[in-house]
From TrEMBL:
Protein name: Sugar ABC transporter ATP-binding protein
Alphabetized PANTHER family for the sequence: CARBOHYDRATE TRANSPORT ATP-BINDING PROTEIN MG119-RELATED (PTHR43790), D-ALLOSE IMPORT ATP-BINDING PROTEIN ALSA-RELATED (PTHR43790:SF3)
SMART domains: AAA
Keywords: ATP-binding, Cell membrane, Membrane, Nucleotide-binding, Repeat, Sugar transport, Translocase, Transport
Classification via InterPro entries: AAA+_ATPase (IPR003593), ABC_carbohydrate_import_ATPase (IPR050107), ABC_transporter-like_ATP-bd (IPR003439), ABC_transporter-like_CS (IPR017871), P-loop_NTPase (IPR027417)
SUPFAM superfamilies on file: P-loop containing nucleoside triphosphate hydrolases (SSF52540)
Origin superkingdom: Bacteria
Species of provenance: Streptomyces hokutonensis
Span of domain ABC transporter: 9-249, 257-506
GO function terms (MF aspect): ATP binding
Gene3D superfamilies given in the database record: P-loop containing nucleotide triphosphate hydrolases
Length: 514
């Protein structure tokens, strides 16, 4: 079969703007039957937008074109017949935990019936046949909540294949391996390879470059919305792949960290011993007073659980947190009492009470401070203090009585952060502190972090944005597959070094310093 005949799905000249900003610029992508194709790019490169365009969830600009088996198709028409041959498996998987694998596979396709009665035997045989085709086997009647993570992805693949009217279909795995440990990734790609061998074209999106170099036949690299590399795996080295991913100029960009540390820097503020959760495996860290520590890593690496686990907001399987040498109970009340605060990643649901005023949200951790002898809150004093706090973060004092939901995301985040800093915490955990806020508010928040550190507060900043960590932190630790695999110190913190460790080549990039 010729290369042209192998071309199963092709995008040509895809552009996408969002009310002005350009997200994708003249992107070409060709997926070939029988091949596994990796789509790689740093955060914000345009990968997710391209996948949404393929799925019909976003509209591309009219200039682009798409072809399925050489026939032009309208990629913007999500009801077109060609979408029956495109199947998407996202990181969330969209499985129903309490239903069995048999029932989950039927979602979207329905059951075979006769005279209105489900033909369970026929359905079971069909699902068994699909699993056999992709080399998988497990109990179809167990609730999927009891299956291994890689088996959950297999259920999602089986559900996609149950839709197939043609083996020459496209299977897209969008970060479906992010939360899987290495042995389960290996098993999953055995399954994926079987699907490709049957005639499918497989596209998988991954930040893990060791997965890309081991499992992909073809690789496309996006950077700043443009394709900067299209290559077959054998044409690449790790160095050329990283250069394409990050841009060679990034390799020599050092962090602009140059500030005076607090007088009491060098004393231990927080010690993390053997912290273990669902995604974190035995993390050990010591954080100094006045230090800004960055926590990096891809989604599913353990980074996104670190702040909540230290604070006690999610269960710990093992481990101990010590603040000032004393053990902190594994629950938020104990953390607050010990002198620790948390700025959560999900601000609307976990960081603020939307229907309450800015004043109430600001003083939540220290209401006892405003109680009179009658146990009523001294509102005049509360208002005066909150007005002063708001001025310190460049907000108008009169906004204290507004419902906090009426503020911009950046101003809400200023309230959440100043609530802890005005309380005088010794350690502040910030999870994605500038996510979804404008540039001006971001700089104010960075200044709050720096000033708090100068005053001796240990600041722990967890973020998926490597550029922010490089610009802000004295030290950065990198998580991969639940473990701390690298540690970088200023002035040697660069976006490229963080990304190289995060993208987890299994040899040559991990730099764990004791």
């Amino acid at each position: 079969m010729s290369a042209a005949q192998d071309e199963l799905f092709t995008l040509k000249g895809v552009w996408k703007t969002y009310n002005g900003p350009l997200v994708l610029r003249d992107v070409d992508l060709t997926l070939r039957s029988g091949r596994v194709h990796a789509l790689v790019g740093h955060n914000g490169s345009g990968k997710s937008t391209l996948i949404r365009i393929m799925a019909g969830a976003e509209r591309a600009e009219p200039a682009g074109s798409a072809y399925l088996d050489g026939t032009p198709v309208d990629v913007n028409d999500s009801h077109s017949h060609h979408h029956r041959r495109l199947h998407f498996i996202h990181q969330g998987l969209n499985v129903i935990p309490h239903l069995s694998a048999l029932e989950n596979v039927a979602l979207g396709t329905g059951y075979p019936t006769k005279l209105g009665i489900i033909r369970w035997r026929s359905h079971r045989e069909r699902v068994r046949e699909i699993l056999h085709r992709i080399g998988a086997d497990f109990d179809l009647d167990r609730p999927v909540s009891t299956l291994l993570p890689n088996q959950l992805v297999v259920v999602a693949i089986a559900r996609a294949m149950a839709h197939w009217t043609d083996n020459r279909s496209v299977l897209v795995l969008d970060e479906a391996t992010a939360a899987l440990p290495a042995p389960e990734v290996e098993q999953l790609f055995t399954t994926v390879r079987r699907a490709a061998d049957g005639g499918a074209a497989v596209l998988f999106v991954s930040h893990r470059l060791d997965e890309v170099t081991r499992f992909a036949d073809d690789i496309t690299v996006l950077r700043d919305g443009q394709v900067v590399m299209n290559a077959e795996r054998h044409e690449l080295t790790k160095a050329t792949l990283l250069d394409a991913l990050l841009g060679t100029q990034q390799h020599h960009t050092t962090a602009p960290v140059n500030r005076t540390r607090a007088d009491k820097s060098g004393s231990t503020a927080l010690r993390v011993r053997n912290l273990t959760t669902e995604r974190i495996r035995g993390a050990n860290l010591t954080i100094e007073a006045g230090e800004i520590l960055g926590v990096a890593g891809l989604d599913g690496s353990g980074r996104e659980q670190f702040a909540d686990a230290v604070y006690g907001a999610i269960p710990r399987a093992a481990g101990e947190i010590l603040l000032g040498g004393s053990a902190v109970p594994a629950q938020p009340r104990g953390s607050i009492k010990a002198g620790m605060g948390l700025v959560p990643a999900d601000r609307p649901r976990a960081g603020v009470i939307p229907e309450m005023s800015v004043r109430v949200n600001e003083t939540l951790p220290r209401l006892k401070h405003y109680r009179r002898a009658t146990k009523l809150v001294d509102e005049p004093r509360e208002r005066r203090d909150v007005s002063a706090y708001l001025e310190s973060v460049h907000m108008t004092p009169r906004s204290s009585e507004k419902k906090i939901k009426l503020l911009s995301g950046g101003n809400q985040q200023k309230v959440v952060i100043s609530r802890w800093l005005s309380h005088g915490v010794d350690v502040l955990l910030l999870d994605e502190p500038v996510q979804g806020i404008d540039v001006g508010a971001k700089e104010v928040i960075f200044d709050l972090v720096r000033n708090a550190a100068r005053n001796g507060t240990a600041m722990v900043v967890c973020s998926a944005v490597d550029e922010d960590l490089a610009a802000l932190c004295d030290r950065v630790v990198v998580f991969d597959r639940g473990a701390i695999v690298a540690e970088l110190r200023a002035p040697d913190i660069t976006v490229a070094r963080i990304a190289a460790a995060s993208h987890a080549f299994k040899s040559g990039t991990h730099d764990r310093r004791s």
